[in-house]
């Protein structure tokens, strides 16, 4: 069976968009904190709905995803906060970073792998440990976007108050 013949085209279009967005974020840029919140919300939706679409809205997938998300948002900020931020008017100058691209690709590859596994009816998709691990990974990755957005928003507010 030729698996490549059964792959839809849209994941590759999405991959191209994610690569473009990730490349753009690898360059220094001026952003409004609300833009980062929007990106974080998009990655949250992509990962959460990916987990639910693959495993259903049961307790294990939802709680594992939420635990991963909460862990990154709570404890990941020191590692994920962009360094060298500068306030310019109502925006923040952010140095370029490859971290967002890595996070986006992590979510994409996890979802793509889960889609392939579902397509070939892999038995591991029914194992509780695998469901918990995959959903926690998606939560961790999307939580990193939320942690970064929260840190930039906090910086912007502190700089405005000073």
TrEMBL record:
Classify the source by domain of life. Bacteria
- TM spans, by residue? 6-23, 35-56, 62-81, 102-122, 128-147
UniProt keywords, alphabetically? Membrane, Transmembrane, Transmembrane helix
Q: Could you tell me what this protein is called?
A: Transmembrane protein
């Amino acid at each position: 069976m030729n698996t490549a013949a059964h792959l839809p085209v849209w994941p590759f279009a999405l991959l191209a968009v994610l690569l473009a967005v990730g490349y753009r974020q690898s360059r220094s840029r001026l952003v409004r904190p609300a833009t980062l919140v929007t990106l974080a919300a998009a990655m949250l939706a992509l990962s959460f709905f990916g987990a639910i679409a693959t495993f259903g809205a049961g307790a294990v997938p939802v709680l594992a995803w939420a635990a991963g998300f909460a862990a990154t948002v709570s404890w990941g900020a020191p590692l994920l906060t962009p360094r060298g931020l500068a306030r310019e008017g109502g925006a923040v100058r952010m140095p370029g970073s490859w971290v967002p691209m890595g996070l986006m690709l992590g979510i994409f590859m996890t979802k793509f792998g889960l889609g392939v596994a579902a397509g070939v009816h892999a038995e591991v998709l029914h194992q509780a440990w695998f469901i918990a691990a995959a959903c926690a990974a998606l939560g961790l990755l999307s939580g990193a976007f939320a942690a970064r957005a929260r840190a930039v928003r906090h910086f912007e507010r502190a700089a405005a108050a000073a």
